[in-house]
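WARN retry 2 of 3 for item q-0093 after timeout on previous attempt; input resubmitted unchanged.
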Amino acid sequence: MLQHMVQNIERTTQLVQEISAAKKEQDVCADLANKAIQQLDQLIQQNAQLSDQMATSAELVSSQPEQLHASISFFKADSNKVKLLR
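OK item q-0093 returned
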């Protein structure tokens, strides 16, 4: 009877140790997943900032042809009078 109790206690101890080891492994995996999510969040924020910068640049570039046209429209040339200079 006592031998049977000792075996049960040893088995219970072994199971508790296995549970503890599995919990530690889960904690490590959860930490890794959390770090990966944080890195993804940082990348998403950086992409959003870059997207905003690109949109601003696109607006500036899209207005340049209109500004250029307005600037050169000051110069009117009669196509009949324009000659190529050599």
